[in-house]
Design a protein that fits this description.
- By secondary structure, this protein is mainly α.
- It has ten helices and no strands.
- It is globular, with a radius of gyration of 20 Å.
Length: 208
């Protein structure tokens, strides 16, 4: 008797999301093809539509999945156990290195920005994902103010955006900046210098 494999919906969905992440990151929303995603996932188009509904819904699911991964890693940094300065240093270095090692995330966001965040505007999950980090940052800032090491007028959301921007811009524009300034911005030494520069800028901004 031939054994019928039991389908694991969660595993199947994650496999499709991983394949879709690669395709959307490489070709953007417009250039990505569902049949290629199906091949990558060793699945079929009908099953993808069964799980995700449409290409638009799949792209939104990919974006939400990408955000959930970085937020999950941030939650495991245990920033609350560190001094305010050390917590900020750890978050800054994590953020830069996460972008460096997960550049599909940058490409996905670039694609969505070109679409004026059309898909993310429809998400009921994205804002909820951001709140734990913002709450944690707010607590770190308050502790830093009490310890006399941080200025009192910094908002958690502004700090979060600045930390993200300093790493995101450098890595998303590394090729064009390298061509303009004739410098290898992706060398080990350049990346180390940039990471330290971002840390210095952030801590300098927070200084009272």
């Amino acid at each position: 008797m031939k054994l019928i494999k039991k389908r694991n919906p969660e595993k199947t969905a994650k496999t499709i999301l991983a394949a879709a992440t690669t395709e959307f990151a490489k070709f953007g929303f417009g250039g990505a093809r569902i049949d290629i995603i199906a091949d990558r996932a060793q699945s079929n188009k009908r099953l993808i539509y069964h799980y995700f509904g449409s290409k638009e819904d799949l792209f939104l699911a990919v974006l939400e999945y990408a955000y959930s991964k970085i937020r999950h890693h941030e939650a495991n940094l245990n920033l609350e156990k560190l001094s305010p300065k050390d917590a900020i240093k750890k978050l800054v270095n994590f953020t830069f290195n996460y972008y460096l090692n997960n550049q599909d995330f940058i490409r996905l966001l670039n694609s969505e920005n070109l679409l004026n965040a059309k898909h993310l505007k429809q998400s009921n999950k994205i804002l909820k994902m951001q709140m734990p980090l913002l709450s944690k940052l707010d607590a770190i800032l308050i502790d830093g103010i009490k310890a006399g090491v941080f200025r009192h007028d910094v908002k958690a959301i502004d700090l979060h955006i600045t930390i993200a921007a300093l790493g995101y811009f450098y890595l998303s524009n590394a090729n064009t900046l390298a061509a303009v300034f004739k410098k290898n911005l992706k060398s080990k030494n350049s990346l180390k210098q940039r990471s330290q520069h971002i840390e210095d800028v952030i801590l300098g901004y927070l200084r009272p």
